[in-house]
Amino acid sequence: MKYSKRIKMEQIATLETQIKEFNKMVDRSQTSINHLKTFSAICQSYPITSADLAIKMDLQKSTLNRLLHSLAENSRGQTEAAELIEIEMDAKDKRQRNINLTSKGKSLMDKMFGGKK
Q1: Where are the alpha helices (DSSP H) in the chain?
Q2: φ, ψ for residue 54 (rounded to 5)?
Q3: Strand partners, 85
Q4: Under 8 Å CB-to-CB from 73, ≥6 apart: which residues?
Q5: pLDDT by residue for the chain (117 residues), tens digit each?
Q6: Which domain holds residue 36?
Q7: Structural domain tally of the chain?
Q8: What CATH number did the domain enclosing 40 receive?
């Protein structure tokens, strides 16, 4: 029982550290746990399409788009863009958007997850 509790406490401490690193790097008070979940999902699967990410996260496209644009670089003219991801139209299918990490996003991934993909 003590071993199980210790593991859970270590997991909580790790998650707390990851959240602190995320908030420090993003430097915004508008971030939420959904931003962290989205960033984490991208880190596990980048590059990924927005459609695949919506399926993976079980989110509506409109909800995911808002999260992505707040994590993107120079997103929709935002002056406080997080610049963690880049969103590009697919060269073959203009309806599809490809999501990848920026150098800032990769740096944060290394700090949060030890460079794991």
Answers
A1: 2-26, 33-45, 50-57, 61-71, 103-113
A2: -60, -40
A3: 72, 101
A4: 81, 82, 83, 84, 85, 86, 102
A5: 455 666 677 878 888 887 777 777 666 556 678 888 999 999 999 999 999 999 999 999 999 999 998 898 655 555 456 789 999 999 999 889 999 999 999 998 988 888 655
A6: 2-113
A7: 1
A8: 1.10.10.10
